[in-house]
Amino acid sequence: MTIAIIGAGNVGGALGNNWAQKGHDIVFGVRDPKAEKTQALLKTIGGNVKAATAAEATASADVIVLSTPWPATEAAIRSMGNLRGKVVLDATNPLTRGPEGIALEIGHAISGGEKVQGWAAGASVFKTLNTTGFGNMANPVFKGVKSVMFVAGDDAAAKPKVMALVGDLGFEVIDAGPLRSARLLEAHAMLWIDLALVRGQGRDFAFGILRR
Ligand SMILES: NC(=O)c1ccc[n+]([C@@H]2O[C@H](COP(=O)([O-])OP(=O)(O)OC[C@H]3O[C@@H](n4cnc5c(N)ncnc54)[C@H](OP(=O)(O)O)[C@@H]3O)[C@@H](O)[C@H]2O)c1
User: Fold this and answer.
1) pLDDT at 47
2) Is the pTM of this model over 0.90?
3) Chain segment 107-126, per-residue pLDDT in tens
């Protein structure tokens, strides 16, 4: 599958590398495809990996992944052109810096995922790949146990493909329901961030599902 990853930073780089090792073709959509750091990333990953503008990357892709900083996300979506009929995985979190440090900018009554759906007219948006750190996206397996990744989205026909793609990374994948569940997943992401960056857990932990 050809996956366009918009934003080639911590998250985009980790996802691109992991999916490329699983045989997917990756095209990063970036503002400057020739930038030294982007070229260095392509070299590190190897395989069938390219960089292009966001519009070029999305035109030929089966699936698009958004991994841009929240304040840049609307502009990044606009720069992709017509997204009608495209499947978009939204890995962003609507973060801001509040009086008590890093926090969600919105929540409860609306989510970043639903805002992304509003900006990406006609696309099928799924909230996923936002609830754990980029290091865990590179390697989601802990001592042989898969950490969990949720997928929330309204397009029932496209959801199995999205869940399979997230599963290819090595996660246990759970259907979290409609896109409005992004409100829960973004709060869940905030819990991971708070535990990792404020409460001393560090980045090398993840949530999992236990069953009897
Ligand atoms: N870091 C994590 O562990 C983590 C985990 C889960 C979710 N997230 C979420 O994932 C998103 C990305 O986080 P990150 O840590 O990967 O950030 P990052 O390392 O700062 O990378 C962001 C990337 O987005 C690019 N970008 C900015 N504006 C763009 C535009 N208009 N078009 C295309 N690309 C653009 C940047 O490229 P330039 O070099 O051109 O600026 C950069 O490559 C955020 O929304 C974050 O909340 C992060």
Assistant:
1) 85
2) yes
3) 889 999 999 999 999 999 99
69 lines ligand 1 (CB under 6 A): yes
Please give the DSSP secondary-structure letter assigned to residue 170.
T
Give residues with Cβ within 8 angstroms of 43, minimum separation 6.
Answer: none
Mean pLDDT of 36-60: 96
- Cα–Cα dist 101/121, whole Å: 33
Q: Is residue 114 classed as helix, strand or coil in its secondary structure?
A: helix
Pocket test for ligand 1, best of 6, 10, 186 (most atoms within 8 A of CB): 10
- Ligand 1 center–CA 141 separation, angstroms: 23
Please report, for residues 134, 195, 198, the alpha-carbon distance to residue 191 in angstroms, rounded to integers and kept in the order given: 15, 6, 10
175 closest CA partner among 143, 209, 204: 209
Assess whether the C-beta atom of 11 lies below 6 angstroms from ligand 1: yes
CA of 47 to the centre of ligand 1 (A): 22
Residue 4 to residue 49: CA distance in whole angstroms: 10
Whether the CB of 136 sits within 6 Å of ligand 1: no
Token reading at 91:
């890995």
Q: Is the pLDDT of residue 48 over 90?
A: no
